[in-house]
């Protein structure tokens, strides 16, 4: 069983044991794999209100339904009520997505931020998918080393996670980069190993 498959299976089990609506939604989202929080974030940003980057309760319900996980209306109400403390009728998308991401230690956040800084354009603070293709090192990927996949296939699978972004502009924001690696992080128990994985992938 791959680490990603283990993450998906473990998350499905943890969803049944969740003690809050947010925790349950996080687990259900992670049942879709490493890029699950990233993909949920893309979906949410497509639906957010451009003037204040928020979504309403009904919009949140529609987002969860479109994403394809089973979450009852009652659970949506509990989720929204726990986040909309001031009863404004809407929640900020970025604040919500930060809460949705699995926790990462400071050491993990640091190495992911280091990788992003290496890749990002200093002028606009985002990564182009084309730059990722040029800088991604697939040679030390476990599936390449075990000959389960070629370097090219591994690169294309990784890039697919990020292509077709929110505005379909071929750019990856820091938030999207962190969302992807929060899923990867959840599947790796050891900080040092996680750091090595990121460093090897981006040759830090």
Overview of this structure, please?
There is one protein chain. This protein has 204 residues and is mostly helical. It is 62% helix and 5% strand. The protein is built from twelve helices and four strands. The protein has helices at 3-17, 21-30, 36-47, 57-67, 73-83, 93-100, 106-119, 129-135, 142-145, 151-160, 174-186, 191-202; strands at residues 54-56, 90-92, 127-128, 171-172. The strands form two sheets. The chain has a two-stranded antiparallel ribbon. Strands 3-4 form a two-stranded antiparallel ribbon. The two termini are 28 Å apart.
Kindly state the percentage of residues in helix: 55-70%
Number of strands: 4
Overall spatial form:
globular
Unreliable stretches covering 5 or more consecutive residues = none
Write out key terms for the chains shown.
single chain, mainly alpha, 204 residues, 12 helices, globular
Could you give a quick summary of the protein structure above?
By secondary structure, this protein is mainly alpha-helical. 62% of the residues lie in helices and 5% in strands.
What topology does this entry show?
Elements: H1 3-17, H2 21-30, H3 36-47, E1 54-56, H4 57-67, H5 73-83, E2 90-92, H6 93-100, H7 106-119, E3 127-128, H8 129-135, H9 142-145, H10 151-160, E4 171-172, H11 174-186, H12 191-202
Antiparallel strand pairs: 1-2, 3-4
Helix pairs in contact: 1-2, 3-4, 3-11, 7-11, 7-12
């Amino acid at each position: 069983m791959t680490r990603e498959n283990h993450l998906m299976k473990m998350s499905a089990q943890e969803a049944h044991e969740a003690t809050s609506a947010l925790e349950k939604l996080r687990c259900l989202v992670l049942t879709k794999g490493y890029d699950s929080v990233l993909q949920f974030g893309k979906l949410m940003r497509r639906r957010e209100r451009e003037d204040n980057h928020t979504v309403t309760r009904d919009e949140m319900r529609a987002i969860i339904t479109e994403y394809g996980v089973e979450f009852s209306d009652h659970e949506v109400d509990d989720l929204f009520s726990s986040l909309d403390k001031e009863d404004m009728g809407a929640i900020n998308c970025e604040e919500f997505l930060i809460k949705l991401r699995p926790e990462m230690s400071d050491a993990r956040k640091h190495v992911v931020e280091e990788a992003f800084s290496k890749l990002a354009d200093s002028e606009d603070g985002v990564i182009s998918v084309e730059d990722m293709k040029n800088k991604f090192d697939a040679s030390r990927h476990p599936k390449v080393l075990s000959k389960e996949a070629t370097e090219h296939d591994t690169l294309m699978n990784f890039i697919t996670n990020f292509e077709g972004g929110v505005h379909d502009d071929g750019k990856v924001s820091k938030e999207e980069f962190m969302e992807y690696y929060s899923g990867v992080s959840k599947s790796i128990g050891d900080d040092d190993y996680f750091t090595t994985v990121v460093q090897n992938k981006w040759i830090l």
